[in-house]
C-alpha cells in the first residue's frame, strides 16, 4: 500500500511493515534485481551515459550482477563520476528505516546498540520512516587531509564527557562509510587518500566491521563501495595499496568517446548553451578535441577532458550572445568567427609536454583549422563553390566579425544573382533555416574556401575579418 501524498509506502510501524509483506534485501541484491528488471524490459539503466555502451557498461553490469565493489580507472573527464552517480537509480525507490536510527537501519535488522534496544522494547510498534534512493548515495572526494574519523569514525568526546565509558560502542561518532549503511558510498580520486587511511578501509570492505582507537565494533554493514582513480595517480600523487586493490571485486577502465558522434552527443548533452550553436560548430569542437588528445605535443598521461570541448561550446555560445546584445541582433547564433575566442580560453585546460613552451597557441590554432577543414569536407563536399569564388574575386570582400550581424554578413555577399544558389545549397546541406543559421553556414563555407587556399582572409585588430 502506498501513500498517495508522498509516493512512498504507507506503513508506519514494524507491525504494519510485516503485514504489508515487505521483503528485506541487501543493497547488492536490490541493485542486481533492479538491473535485471531494466535489462529484461529493454530500459536503459544508464541514462545520460554516452560512448560506453559496448565497452564499459557491459563490464560494470557484470560486476554489479556478481555483487562486486568496483573501482573505475581512467583519465580526467571520462565520465567516471557521472557513471557512478547513476548507480543510485538501481536502488529500490523507497526503503524503510528505523525512525531516529543513526545508520538508517532496516526495521527487520537493527545493528547499533541503541536501535537494538529500541526494537526489543517496542516490538511491532517500532516506528519507521521511508528513505528515497537519492538519500542513499554518498560521495566523498578523497583529499590528503581526509582522516580515519571522516571515513570510518572516531570516539565522540562529547559523549564521553556526558559520562559514558570510553569503551562503550555508543561513544563512537560514525564516519561516512558506516553512515552509508544500506546504500552506496563513492570515493573519488581514491589514490589521494594517505596509505594509512586506505588501511582503515580494509576491514570495512572484507569483514564489514570497523575498528576505532583499539575498539572493534562488529557491524554487519550493508554497503556497495565504489571508487574512481586516474591510473597515473599510482605514481604521481599516490597509489591504491595492494590489499585494498585486492578487495575490489572489479577494476574497470574507462575511455574517451571512441566515435565522433559520441563526442558530439556528450557536448550537446552537457553544455549549458546561452545561444544557438549549430551542430557543425559543435562538430568542429569535437574534432578539435580529438586532435588535441592525439597530438604528440600534448601530455597523454594527463588526457584532455570532455570538459575541454564542453567549455569550448559554452564559450562560443557566449560570444554569439555578446554579439547579439551589442548589435541588437534578434537571435544569437554562433558562427565560425566565434571559434577565435576558444583557443585562449581553453589553453589552460591542456598540459603540454616539456619543450613546447611558447608554441601552445600555435599548436591549438593549427589543430582548430584542421578540425574546421575536416568539417567542411564532411558536410559541403560536392557543392560547386566556383560562382562564390568568382564573385569574391571581382567584387567587394565579405566582412564578418564579433560586431557584424547575420543580416549584414548576408547582405555583403557580392553578385547575389549568381551566389544565392550557392548559399541556398550550403544552407540546405547544413539544415540552416533562419537568417542567423544561414549566415553561420555561409561563414563555414567561406572559411573552407580560405583553408583550401581558394580565397584570402584578413583580420584586423578590431575583430573585423574579410574574406575576398
TrEMBL record:
Positions of region (Disordered): 1-20
Record-linked Pfam families: Sigma54_activat (PF00158)
Ranges where the Sigma-54 factor interaction domain occurs: 173-231
PANTHER family tied to this protein: PROTEIN KINASE PRKA, PROTEIN PRKA
Protein's UniProt name: Magnesium chelatase subunit I
Organism, as annotated: Williamsia serinedens
Organismal lineage: Bacteria, Bacillati, Actinomycetota, Actinomycetes, Mycobacteriales
